[in-house]
Write a structure and sequence with these properties.
This protein has about 260 residues and is an alpha/beta fold. The chain is built from 7 helices and 10 strands.
Length: about 260
Amino acid sequence: MDSSAQLSDQHSDISPLDAIAHSPLRFDIISLFPDFFTSPLNSGLIGRALQKDIASVHITNPRDFATDKHHKVDDIPYGGGVGMVMKPEPIFAAIESLPVLPNRAVILMTPQGETMSQPMFQTLSTQYDQLVLICGHYEGVDERVSHLVTQEVSLGDFVLTCGEIPALTLINGIIRLLPGTVGKADSLKYESFQSDLLDYPQYTRPAEFRGWSVPDVLKSGDHGAIAQWRKQQQIERTQQRRPDLYQRWQQSPKSPADHP
């Protein structure tokens, strides 16, 4: 893996004292498939953020901590049933090998967890200096791993083949909120879900394409009218596409800027 992007494979040899002194938000991923993260975390905005030392990502493979000669990390479930369950010993050993920063969360990727949301990303990006992400496989992880876990997180009400996909989503959503990642920090204030409203329609050149024109108000140069149009579009779009969010927005406290 590309060490220049602060992406390190296997368990880190950073001492706990050195890690605590290191300011970037530290992600520790517990994964049987470290290569899954190579391209996504070395590309685009997230890759540049890691290169700028805004965050660091370290991957630990629990298979390295299996004690039998076959490096077995899963076994059949007690009580019978289909599939295999990830064993607790390698996961415990992998996590216990990591440095412990003062504000650490250990997060299990599981369909039983709290669904990811923008408020969750905001909390995790500001309240912690270390996030340990456990990526499950097969039929899940041994329930005793829950004694290590401080939070369970889900991508949604569906089943995926592995926990690496939601873990990558979580990392992406958090890193882009860290100071210095997005060039214009103010742009984060106007994104979808920041105020329980979806984003307004976006247009660029040409002004007309195949009979579809950019709304005149956006070409008017009247910033007040543009802001009013955009807010109205946000409200209408949210009401049509996400009535659940629209209801939540209606019930939330409003400032003058929240009205078209």
